[in-house]
Amino acid sequence: MTGGIELIPVRGLGEVTRGTDLAAMICDAVELVHHDVVVVTQKVVSKAEGAMERVDPDDPLSHKPLVERESVRILRRRGDLIISETRHGFVCANAGIDLSNVERGWAALLPEDPDRSARRIRDGIRGRTGTEVGVVVSDTFGRTWRRGVTDVAIGSAGLIPVLDLRGTADAYGRELQVTEVAVVDEIAGAADLVMGKSTGVPVAIVRGLGDEVFSPRRDDGTEEHRGVLGDVVRSPAEDLFR
Amino acid sequence: MTGGIELIPVRGLGEVTRGTDLAAMICDAVELVHHDVVVVTQKVVSKAEGAMERVDPDDPLSHKPLVERESVRILRRRGDLIISETRHGFVCANAGIDLSNVERGWAALLPEDPDRSARRIRDGIRGRTGTEVGVVVSDTFGRTWRRGVTDVAIGSAGLIPVLDLRGTADAYGRELQVTEVAVVDEIAGAADLVMGKSTGVPVAIVRGLGDEVFSPRRDDGTEEHRGVLGDVVRSPAEDLFR
Predict the structure, then answer these.
(1) Is A239 inside a domain boundary?
(2) A6 and B8 in contact by Cβ < 8 A?
(3) Which end of chain B is more exposed for a tag (fewer CB within 10 A), N or C?
């Protein structure tokens, strides 16, 4: 797609609390360039948006009633683990609620509309610097069949979440069969390589992606709003494992 | 985990055929440094190892009998699509067999033991240059619940496939809950961002990963052999969706 890509951790961001202007904070910490992608972890987005709930700090299972509340469907239970579908359509453990990297006595919920969260950060960055970037809100999900978690996109803005390569040819001139690439998820996972889970780096920049992954503006300057909820989340009807 | 990371596509590798020495080809094309990770697509590994079968070039479904043969269990069928488990334990579409980026009239099977394939490339690179690298063999898989494919690791060498962060603390000093990170899958997905599906770039370098993802040598110089098959593939017993 491109020459090379850099994954750049953004350090020294300071504490995020309800009302923190993430776009301003990011612009103060790093010099962004055209078509950077800014990856922001769900945890700081939820904190900035106040999507937090009090839980009993001495009860390790105190967030479980929240998990039930935030789920529209429970898919599996094993011991304390609940795999459920959230109202966004994400299928993940504990409805995406967790307690790590939040203050004791609090649980972070998923943002109400993570695509909108991403758009807000993107628009904030453009408003301050005039720079067109893509934004991904990332979270850590498990997968079926494979051990371990990876970071995926739960929201995005300014990007084509799933790149459709149908009709393009492979290196032999043969039309490609497997053709819809979830670029936003590959971006989220790549960014996690410089974030870690314990290092307190909640933002990373992915620099050098090809223009084809960015959502083009229309001739009148307006833009298509594509995001993870519409493009990546699979409807139950087309899902073979629900 | 680290400072920054570079994703570097390796261009100009030339045609890979049965018997091609991939390690030699890679060393000729790029100057590797200590703790680079070399990501090689399954397709060129299968070609180099001769894991290819003739198919009728005029029948788009001619590889389907191979899919049945290479599967130990069929999980779902919908139209022409088969989701099955391979004898490695991978759950994927069409037993990982496909026809893109191979010569007309041929289908590429998965390598017999992709961890061994990765070790062979790693040992070949060390033999030629003395450089210790990690190697990932990547392939393109779909996922449940989410649209689009991403690249994941089907084999690895010199790496800790799933990094266990249990016992480490988050930024608040609280012990992490979600703790096993499938680093090799994040590496494979990141590498795909510079490979694309149609650009004929079958190798990429991930440079700058922290030492903690590399498999340490024992005091006597021997190394632990950890790979994707043992560490990432989930046994049916611990899988909630099989």
Answers:
(1) no
(2) no
(3) C
What's the CA gap between B37 and B155, in Å, rounded? 13
The closest alpha carbon to A88, from A107, A67, A111, belongs to A111
Q: Answer whether A139's CB lies under 8 Å from A155's CB.
A: no
Do B37 and B68 lie in one domain? The reply is: no
Residue range B14-51, pLDDT digits in tens:
899 999 999 999 999 999 999 999 999 999 999 999 99
- Out of A3, A150, A232, closest to residue B182 by CB: A150
Task: Point out the residues of chain A with pLDDT beneath 70.
Answer: 1-2, 167-178, 197-199, 242
- Tell me, yes or no, whether A225 lies in a domain: yes
Q: Give the tens place of pLDDT for each residue, A214-239.
A: 998 888 878 888 899 999 998 877 77
Q: Does B66 touch chain A (CB under 8 A)?
A: no
Contact B13, B29 (CB under 8 A): yes
Domain match, A143 and A182 both: yes
Which residues of chain A does B242 touch, with a Cβ-Cβ cutoff of 8 Å? 144-145
Q: Which residues contact B16 (CB under 8 A, 6 or more apart)?
A: B22, B25, B44, B47, B48, B202
Whole-prediction pTM value?
0.94
**3-state secondary structure at position B228:** helix
Where among B75, B109, B143 does a domain terminate? B109
Quote the number of domains for chain A: 2
Q: Does B90 touch chain A (CB under 8 A)?
A: yes
Candidates B7, B168, B170; nearest CB to A5 = B7
> A178, B149: Cβ pair inside 8 Å?
yes
| Structural domain for A228, as ranges | 6-50+112-233
Contact call for residues B41 and B139 (beta carbons, < 8 A) = yes
What is the CATH number for B102?
Answer: 3.90.1660.10
User: Are A198 and B99 a contacting pair at CB < 8 A?
Assistant: no
